[in-house]
Structures are given as structure tokens and as C-alpha cells.
Amino acid sequence: MSQATLERPAKEPTRTRRWRTTRRATALSAYGEPWLWLASGALALALAMIAALVLLILVRGFGTFWPSELLRIERKGAPALLGEVTKEELVTRPAADGMPERTERRRMLRTGNYDLTGHHFEWVWDSEVEREARPEWALAVERTAWGRFHGEPVALVAGERVLAEQPSEILARLDDELARAIEGREARHRLEVEEVGAVHHAMEVERLTLRHLEAEGGDAAQRAASIERTAELERQYEALQRRLAELDVENGRTVLRMRAPDGATKDLALVDVVRAYPANALDWSAKLGVYLSRWWEFLTDVPREANSEGGVFPAIFGTVVMTLIMSLVVVPFGVLAALYLREYAKAGALVSIVRICVNNLAGVPSIVFGVFGLGFFCMILGTSIDELLFADRLPNPTYGKGGLLWASLTLALLTLPVVIVATEEAIAAVPNSMREGSYGCGATKGQTILRIVLPRALPGIMTGMILAIARGAGEVAPLMLVGAVKLAPQLAVDGTAPFVHPERSFLHLGFHVFDLGFQSQNSEAAKPMVYTTTLLLIGIVVTLNLTAIWIRSQLRKKYAANPF
Amino acid sequence: MLPHSQAPARRKRTTRRSARVLEFVMGAAIRIGGIGTMVSVALILVFLVWVVAPLFQDATTEPRASANAGGVKPWLTGLDAGKNLQWTLDAEGRLQVARLDDGARLDERDLVQAASGGSSAATTATPPPKLRSIALDPEGTRFALGFADGRVQVGTLAFRTRFAARSAEPDAARALDAQGRGIAGREFVEALPSGELRLTSLELALEPAVQALGEAGATSNSAVAALDRSTTSARDSLLVLGERGELVLLELERRENMLTGEFELESRRHALPFQRGANDELPAHVLLNEGGDGACLLWSDGRILRWDLRDPDAARIAQTTDVTSGAARISAVAQLLGKTTIVLGDTDGGLHAWFPVKRENASTSDGTELVRGHALVRSGPAITRIASSARGRVVAAADAEGGITLWNVTNERELARLSMPGGSADALAIAPKEDGLFALRAGGAAAWDLDLRHPEAGLAALFRPVWYEGYPGPEHVWQSSSGTDSFEPKLGLWPLVFGTLKATFYSMLFAVPIALLAALYTSQFLSARARAPIKAAVEMMASLPSVVLGFLAGVIVAPFVEDVVPAVLLSFFTIPFVLLVVANAAQLLPERLGRRIGARERLVLAFVMLVIGAGLAWIGGPWIERALFTGDLRGWLDGRDGAAFGGWLVLLLPASAAFVALGWARVFEPRVRAISAHWTRARNARTQSGVFIAGALCALGLAALVAIGLQGIGLDARGGVFDTYVQRNSLIVGAMMGFAVIPIVFTIADDALTAVPPHLKLASIGAGATPWQTAVRVVLPTAASGIFSAVMVGLGRAVGETMIVLMATGNTPVMSWNVFDGFRTLSANIAVELPEAVQGSTHYRTLFLAALCLFGLTFVFNTLAEVVRQRYRKRAARL
Fold first, then answer.
1. Contact status, residue B861 vs residue B769, Cβ threshold 8 Å
2. Separation of alpha carbons B198 and B80, rounded Å
């Protein structure tokens, strides 16, 4: 570079212009002021867009779980409402019913009580309002089904016995009773999942055995034994069903009697209640408690109410396991490919073409990889595996459909270029002098790569891996084709042999966002969940990216400090 | 590594075995793994091509053994789904079922005997009336018979298959021959690999005959010359033409008798007002459409009389036309599946498909016209028979010289050309699964195994306009599925490619100027300290999952923008305008103050201006809506009311502003500069501000003038770039895709601009150029290739983006440039339809083709970018 600088003036052709007298002032247009302002405006716009987006997601995402107060609105000629104000806007209403054109405020109330009214939300015009109040004992109850219930507590009843009738008393006892109800619910859940599940599994195994025997024309004694076993299992199953029914009756005994805002009373079985809090009587710390407990539920629990309530634990689990399998596949192969390209392949036209292609592969739309994954992994590989190993389960596909394994492999292909490019860069950054030094000491090529090149390139490889994981965690389009679903009853890892089920469909955070935001029946109720899920997803992706950037900067510092 | 303890003299010359093993293993692993990885990546392309290839492959045919069962001249014939059995009906009304390969007979029925009701033996004295005409639907199952005594009879004809264990059917098991086939009673038996038996037989169901013409039992009844039957879920419709020219529409309904529980056939007769000229021959064919609400009478000389039967009691003639040219006579007729398209073959060898089309200015009474949609053959040997497929749009046409040609009608693709040995075919049938063809002649038979692959595909069908049944003309249509069986999938990829291009165009229009200007500003005018966080933030934005952007676009931005469209439109003008105003205002400041505005202050001020510009748009939006769009922009867009002026003004303003600016810079500025060289800075600034105001007014005036002119000519932007507003539209996608594209373009362009060697810049500054002149005339040209590659990579991203367009557009595959309308892109289409597509179907393969298109498009863009970037690197290294 310095050479070029020195040579340059000599090359400059001399022109007569140089001898003209310089102007005293430069024309203003030479400063390009208008353009500069437009350019700075463009940058400002880009930054404002980012800021607005991040702010929106942060505010909505973090704000969702904060319990807000319950407002009771009595309307003219319509039943009273009790709910949280979720939206407020000014609308110009056209002239109608003898009223002139006017601008009026309307508020959206999340009223809950879907089982009574058929609405989750209701708009209220200011002109409809007769009286507003914040009842002291208004209770917000979150349930396992039917969404929320808003009302005032009337009594806490266990069977025939009334436990409490004063709101303060009810609230005082509610926590204990609720804890007991949750215990009952969990006991039932355990029974259902573990014991009933085990019997189910055994029945399925027995069914397949019987089918197998019949197809092979096995002897009658074996068949009879199998049928006998099936009958025994069915008896067990019925017994369990009876026990479940008994538990249901036992669990359903304790009831919270509520008065809905329109005056109707409703008994809520405590076993169906997830959380109940007196929204208007909470102080700051109690609100924080509700807020944190909701976050905890969100992170650790399963979704309910068509994914619009509850938690996203299965989605977190699916995302994590999928990216884990993906990186287990993509990193070794990506590193091998990069090593081959840098250290083994002869540099030439072919290698640079391959390199260009690998680079380009990073730009190929992700949906194309999804198409490949569906066509090749699910339809061809999976179907062949089914025919070879799981023929007795056909026509129900085992591997011949979308699943965790195929999704991971598809994403591995998708992120392969990222890893290859990053690793190649890292390997190229290892100074040749170090390699030569290693050879000079008598080390073989393999030893040099293993002990000199790879350790030095490790941070770069790590960066590539993290970038790949970040890309993989955020991709949704290919997953729609190869196995992400909106509802997966079973996790990919569970207690039934062989414990790991890579063929199962799974939930994914990104797909969850798509499903809730785009396909949900009740999108208004699902919105808060989408924001928090989005926040979570972005949090994961951004954290991974920041880690990659941090590692890269550490790497640069290391090399900057060390000329080798 | 060598142990250090050893003295050089005693150094081992051989490499340790472990090192050699390691060397070998590593070399092998890296080579195998590396090459394997590369190969597996290449496999993606190979696999996509492998799946797509059958779409373009030609059909294959293979002759197979066949025999004419009775040796009689056949009238109609058909095959079973397994291509083992044939049925033949001759003119005497004898229905025979026989093996296809050797003609061994399984079953024989006499339809005439069956029709005269085997209830009493007394009728044997008089011979049963002869069978005069028959109608069979395209599926080959429902038929209608017309007799000489004016009666008609409907029935169904179907092959039934059942499975049984060998032990359950000992007779059938014994009948099997060496190939595992045989005949047992009326059933054809086949041994399956699983050990079970498959038994196939023809099942014939006949309803009681109904008197269609004349009175029951009368001897003077006219015979049924021709008839057709069409079936809906509610009833059967029969159109019956009598020998003497009577035309009767018969509606048959099966009713359950409440008392006996038996089904009764209830008939309603409607005589149609058909009058034929005294010397006119009788129509040769009657054709009823699927719903039974339209019919055609077809004469041999090509005349067609189309009837409107929507109200059977007020039936009227909708259209008369002639379908042949010259002296050609119609010699063969068939209806395609759905009974809407008629395929006609004539004695000149012409083979044409006709169907009714709804047209706005139709000359007919019911607004539809029968048009010739497809001309498959124009001339050749006379067509003798046409058979249509029961599942698609394939027809087989036999000619007088024994040739048989298979066509797919919709895309006019010739699939195969076969030849029947020994003469022309009397009866022709396509196997139910379109995998076989059977041709029968009085003295012989011929059969073929067909593999048509994907007759409805092919380059022309996928990328050229195709005239689909019922459409007013050839069009690009993507419509892959529907509720009805007779639905024809329309797999024109062009609307999807168009959608992809539209999405790309609008998002690039939004993203590229912002990204490039921002990159220029960041790299050339901001200090390194300010640049670092900005770049990190933008790179962070690049890694945002696109599903998040899609969600925000579809659920938050789209409903928001819908309420403030005029303000959003206005903000495209106010924001740059406010920035330009502040640019001029800054120059008017005293020089000492003006110099204080550095790059960072400018950025902060730009933020403020952004807010002010948006605020102005917010306030001005409703005002503009009232002034230009009659107070209701969306109503205006619907084209209900208002003048074209407003739309043109909005469209033309950017162009006229650019024109005025360019005109100023090219024509006037050099002169002004020459005069103003000795002016003071303040005077210069004042002049420039004046010029700016004048220019702005000029641009506005010019745009308004042209807009008035265009309105005067009667042109309207509505119907083109502007049209009906849809909530999820291109505007939204363009803006939200900006989030995905801006960071990529910005980062790469910024890298390219930063990489320009500093000595070039320094030389330029040193020679007296301003920073702006340096940036535009030195840095920008040097980095041009890098910027080009940035745009290309951005383009690649925009083309393939799935989630944003999936969630932020309505996903309707329409072809319009309307900014306020949605579209469907290749990628979104794959995401929506592939999970539902049947593996191996045409639809499935076409979706793979869409994926291949995407792959190809992005690969081209990226390769272009990469090649340019490589060249740029070389050039930059030389500087």
C-alpha cells in the first residue's frame, strides 16, 4: 500500500487546469448539503425503525404479565362489565341516531367470562358508560379452560359445607385451598400420564404383537395368550378410569362461588383454577409476585387454551433439543469440509468455485431447504426406514413424516455454509509461519492440524457454531414442512422406552409465534402470548449473536496482541 | 512431536506408528467428510431436479395382450382399474365382461331383456323393443339407454373389488393359473403377494324403465334417437330426442316410500319447444351439462343449438353456432370430465374442444358463449372415435387410418401417438387410472399400458397462459385445489413468480435507498466511535427471526396503517421535504454556527426532523384525503368516486421532483456557479434557498400539470399501481421486508465503502475536494462493485423471504401491480401448500419446481454478487 502511495503522484497526468487560479469560495452545492441531510435522515430512519421495533417488543413483552386493575363499568341498557382495559382509542363516529358527528373515546375491556357471555373482549364507548368503579374485592381467576373469570367472590364451598363467606375471609383461605387443589390436580395428572399411559403403551404393543401373529399365521395358543393379555390390560384400563373418575369427584368438591358482573353466580371448581388474585387490592409487591409467578408458569408450563394461555415449555424444549442435534451434526461436518477446502484440496479453479457455491448456499432461501428436507428426509429416507424397521406400524408413519430428527438435519444443511465459512476464515487466519514451524519440528500434517491449527481456530469455529445456532433457532419456514406442529402431546424425550423419540413432531418457539399470531382462532387473546414468546425468541437469538460477536472481538484482540 | 530428551545424533528417522495412523485417519476423515459434505450439499440440487424432471418427461406406452371377446362389432367399451377386465356393449344390447388379455368371457347380460322387465314370461310373444341409443358419462359408470318404444332406462355399471383369504374361497383359489389369475364364476381372481385373493366383477344396476316419449304401451311411440344423462346429488336429468324431433327433459328422482321403505323412481317430463325445419335432418347428438341446466343439440354438419335449461319449463335457445368449417362433418363427440367441455372430431381430421364461457358483451341470451378453446388437430385423417379420461383432461382420438392419438386438452399437449393394427377402432376406452388404453374393432383389439406421467404439466402449461375451461381467454392462473372432483388444478407458476417479483420490487424500492444512503453516511461522515454501535445495532437487526417481523407486519402494522393510509402516503413526501428544508435552513445560518453542525449533530437533528415530518404527515393526512381523494381514500381507491388527479399527483411528484432537480443540476447550476463564484457564502445560501423553494414549487406544478393532462386524456392510475385497498398489502410487505433487507445491504455496502483505501480519500481532500465530493466522486465509484454485490445479496434475501410475505400479505395469487393489494410468492406458496400436497402428484412436483426456481433465482443473484465482489477485491488490491 505504501508503495502505491509513493508511485501515484508520478502517474498523475498533468493538466492545464492545475494552473488556473483557485476560486475564493467553493460552491455550496459542492458540500452536498441536501444530500447529506437526506443520507443522515436515512440512517436516522433505519435506527428509528430498529429502536421502535425493539421498544415495542420489550414494552409489550415485559408488560403482558403485569396484573392490571379490574374496572367495573355499568352500561346503559346492557349488562355491567368487569375487566382490564387493554386498549384505548379516539374514534370519529359518523352522525347517527340523532347524534352529530363526534370524536369519542372507546376502550377495550378484557372481560373474560367466555363461558357466560361468549366474548373475551368488549368495546365500550364513553357515551355508553353510566358508572365506573374499581370494586375492592374484584377477583381475577385464571382457569385451565374457558380463559379468565372476573367477578366478586361470594363463598368458598367444600361439598355441602361453606368454608367462608366474607371476601376477606375467602381470600385468606383461598391460598391454602388452592394449594390443595393443585396437589389434587397433579395427582390426577400423574395417574393419567404415568399409569394410564403405561397401560396404553402396553396395549399398543400387544395390538402390534397380535397383528404380527395373525399376519404370520402363528399358532393359536400364542394368539389366544395375546388376546388374553389384551383383555387383562383392558380390565386394568377400566379400573384406572374408575379411579380417575373418583379423583375427579374428590377434586371437584371444593368450589369458589363467584358473582359475575351481570349478577349471575358461577361455581368455579378450584381444581380448574390456576391462579386467583384480587386485582384491585394488590399492593406493589403482591403485583410483582403475580407477575413473576406468571413468568415462571410461562417458562415451565405447557400451553393451554389452544396455546393462548399457559406456558411455552414444550416449545423451549423443542427449540433447544432441535438446535442441539443440529449443531451436533453441522459442526463436525462443517469443520471437516472447511479443513478439506483449506488444508487438503489443491487451490485452483475448482476449489474457488466450490467456495463460491458454499457462500451462495448461505443465500438460498430457507424454504428450499425445507422442501428438500420434506422430499428427501421425510418422504424417501423416512419411508424407507419405516418399511425396514417399523413395517408393522404402517400405514401409520413413524419416520415417514416430519419430526425432530428430520428438522434438525434440514437445519443442519441450512446452517452448514455458516459453519464452513466461519471455520475457513478462522483456519485462514492461523498464520502460515505457525504451520511451517510445526512442520519444521517434524510434525506430520495431521498432528499440525490437530494441535496447532484447530486450537487456534477454535474461537472462530465457536463463532460459526453460535451463528449457526442463532440462525437455526430463528428459522421457521423450513420447520413448517418438516415437523414443527402447533400441538405435540408428547415431548421427544420421556419415560417410555426408548426414552428418546427423534421421530416425534415438536413445538418450536418461532412456529409458536407464527401459529399464535397468524392462525389463532382468538388472535386478540393470543396477542400477549405472542409478544412474550417473541421476546423470548429474540432474547435467545440476540444473546447467541452477542456471544458470537463477543468471542469474535476477543479473538481479534488476541491476534492483535500477538502478531503470530 | 519429537521427545526433547533425545540427542540429535540418536534421533529416530522413522515416524512413530501412532503418528502415521493418525495422519492416515485424519487425512481420510477430512477428505471423506469434506468431499462427502460438499456432495451432500450438491445432492440438494440433484434431488430437486430429480423430483421435478417427470413433469417434463414424455409419456411412455407399451403394447399389451388383448383380445376381442365375442368378435362382434362393439359400440362401447371400458376397462377395470386393474386393467384385467374389459366390458363391451354391442348394438344388440349385449353386455359382455371378459378378460382383457385373452378375451375369456366371465359374464354376459342382455340389457334389452333386462329392460323389458323379466317380471313376466308372457311378454316373450312380442320381441322386446330394440336398443336405439345409449349415453355414458365420462367416468364410465352411469349410463342411460333409449329404446325404440320411447322408453328410457338409467343404470350404473361398475367393477367391484373384494378381498378374501384363500381358505374362504376354495373355488376361486382352484381357478388360479400359473400366473396367479383365473376366472371363478362371474369373478376374476388374482392372487396377491400377501397371500390374499382379489376378486373383481362387474356390477350392473338398472333402474326401472321410464316412458320418455309418448304413452306407456302405445305402439305409435317415436323411438329414442339420442339421449344424454347427467347426475347431481339431488336428481338425474335426461335429455331425450325422439325420432320425430321431440325433445324432452326428464327429471328422475329417487324417493323413499315412507310406508314400504322401498325406493321409487319419480319422473317429471318437460317438453322443450324444439322445432326443426321440414327437410332438416335430426340432430346427431344431444349433450347435457353437469348440472343438467344447459344442453347442446349437435348436427352432423356442425350446427349446434345450445339450450338454457335453468328453468326447465321456460327452456329457451341460448345460442346457435356452427362448429365446423367447410364441408367437414362431425364424426366423433366426447365430453370431458365435468361434462362442460365438448371434444369434437370431424371428417377432415379436426379435433377441437369447445366450452361455454361467460362474457360481458356476449351476444347470447344467457351471457355465455360456446367457444373453441383448444384446437388440437386441424386436419388429418377423419376422426372416428374419441374417448375421455375419467380422472383428468386426457382424450384419446382414433382416426380412420388406425392411428390413435392421446392429448391433454387444456394445455394442448400431444402425449402419445399409437397405431392400431388392421384398421380403425370402433370403440375406445381409457383405463380409469389413465394407465391404459383399449381399442376395439369388430375383428380385433389392441391395448396399451400407458405411463402419462404428468399430462397437465409441461413448460407451456406452467409458464405460458393457458385457456382453462370456463375462462374468457388464456390466462396465467394458480389454483391448485378445490372442493369438487371434476375440478381441474390450474398450475400456472407465473402469478407466483410475479408475486415474488412484486414483493422484491417494492421492498427493494423501500430498502435500497435507505440502506445505501445510511451506509454512505455511516462510513464516510461518522467518526469510528459513533460507527461501531450503529453497525452492531444494524447487524443485530439482521439476525431478527423473520417470523417476528411477519407477525408485527400482519398483526400490528397492517391494521395500524389501514387507519392512516393518507398519512403514510404523505410521509413519503413530508419526511424528505422537511430534511431538505432543514438542509437549506442550516446553510442560512452564519458560517461560524453552521460549521458547528457536525455529523453527529446532523444525525440527532435528522431524528428530530423525522419526527416533525411524520407529525406533519399525521396532521396533513386527513387534509390531503379531503382535498384529493374526496375525503375517503379507500372509497377513491375502489374507483367509486373522485377524479384521477390525486392519484396521478402522488405518483408523478417523485418523478417530477427528480426531473426538476436533474434539470437544475445539468442545465442551470453550472451557469449559476460561474456567476456566483465571487459571491459571499451567505448570498450563495440565500440563492440556493430561493432555488429550492422555486424548485419545489416547479416540481409540484409540473406534477399537477401532467396529472391534469393525464386526467384529461381519461387515464386513471386506479386499476394499475393504485387499486382497491386490502389490509395486508405490498406497502406493508415492502416496509417490513425493509427490516430484513436494509441490514444486509447496509452491512455489505458499509464494508465496501470502508474498505476504500484511505490514501485515495486523502488525495482527494488534499486536492481541494469537499468531503461530499470525495465521497461521491472518489469513494462511491471505487466501491461501486461492492455496493452492487450488496444490492444483489439483498435481492436474494428479498426473493426467498417466506415468513414475512406469508404473514403480511393476503396470499392471493393475483397479478396486479397495485401497491395496496396482496400477492402470493413462490416461497409462501410452498409453505402453504406443500404440507397438503400428495407425494408424487403433479401439484407436489410443481411445488418442487417452485423451490427449484427460487434456488435458481437466488443462486444467480448471489453468484453475480460474488463474482463482482471477487473482481472488486482484485481491483481494490491494485489501488
1. no
2. 13
Contacts of A329 in chain B (CB under 8 A): none
Q: What sign results for the dihedral spanned by CA atoms B761, B764, B766, B771?
A: negative
What is the 3-state secondary structure of A477-528?
HHHHHHCECCCCCCCCECCCCCCECCCCCECCHHHHHHHHHHHCCCHHHHHH
pLDDT of residue A135: 85
Do B293 and B270 contact (CB within 8 A), yes or no? no
Cell numbers linked to A243: 379411579
In a domain, B702, yes or no: no
Instruction: List C-alpha distances in Å: B836 to A6, A383, B455, B805, B847.
Output: 67, 17, 21, 19, 11
Tens of pLDDT, residue by residue over A319-369, are 888 888 998 999 999 999 898 888 888 878 888 888 888 888 888 899 999
Q: Is residue B674 one of the residues assigned to a domain?
A: no
Look at residue B68 and tell me if it is in a domain.
no
A408 and A538 both lie in a single domain: yes
Q: B606 and A43 in contact by Cβ < 8 A?
A: yes
Adjacency order of strands within the sheet including B330-335:
B330-335, B342-346, B351-358, B368-377
- C-beta separation of A234 from A246 below 8 A: no
The dihedral through the CA atoms of B763, B765, B770, B775 has a sign that is positive
Q: How far apart are CA B741 and CA A519, in angstroms?
A: 26
Q: Domain residues for B209?
A: 129-272
Amino acid at B129: P
Residue A47 resides in a domain: no
B507: which 3 cell numbers? 421492498
> Which helix (H) or strand (E) covers residue B351, if one does?
strand B351-358
Q: Summarize pLDDT for A78-90 with one digit per residue, the tens.
A: 888 888 888 888 8
Q: Which of B354, B232, B217 is closest to B285 using CA atoms? A: B354
Mean per-residue pLDDT, B667-672: 82
Instruction: Tell me if residue B11 falls in helix, strand or coil.
Output: coil
Within 8 A by CB and 6+ apart from A5, the residues are: B759
- A162: β partners: A157
Q: Is B682 on the interface with A (CB under 8 A)?
A: no
* Residue in chain B lying closest to A367 (CA): B827
Residue A411 near residue A367 (C-beta atoms within 8 A): no
From the list B33, B602, B681, the residue facing A40 with the nearest CB is B602
Q: Do A278 and A160 fall within a single domain?
A: yes
Is the CB of A514 less than 8 angstroms away from the CB of B803?
yes
Q: Does residue A458 share a domain with residue A352? A: yes
Q: Work out the number of other CB atoms within 10 angstroms of the CB of residue B526.
A: 20
Contact between chains at B514 and A45 (C-beta distance less than 8 A): yes
Say how many domains are in chain B: 1
- All 3 cell numbers of residue A561? 496482541
- The ipTM (two decimal places) reads 0.85
Whose cell is 469440509? That residue is: A337
Shared domain for A442 and A352, answered yes or no, is yes
Q: Is the dihedral of CA B276, B278, B280, B284 positive or negative?
A: positive
Domain extent at residue A377: 333-559
Amino acid sitting at position B80? D
pLDDT of residue B128: 72
Do residues A508 and A363 both lie within one domain?
yes
Per-residue model confidence as pLDDT tens digits over A248-299: 888 788 888 888 888 888 888 888 888 888 888 888 898 999 999 989 988 8
At A436, which CATH number?
A: 1.10.3720.10
**pLDDT (tens digit, 9 = 90+) per residue, B277-321?**
777 788 888 998 888 888 888 988 888 888 888 888 888 888 888
CA distance A204 to chain B (A): 23
DSSP B73-107: PEEEEEE-TTSSEEEEEETT-EEEEEETTT--EEE
Taking the CA of residue A137 and the nearest CA in chain B, the distance in Å comes to 34
User: What is the side-by-side order of every strand in the sheet holding A121-125?
Assistant: A121-125, A102-110, A78-93, A71-75, A129-133
A14 in reach of chain B (CB within 8 A): no
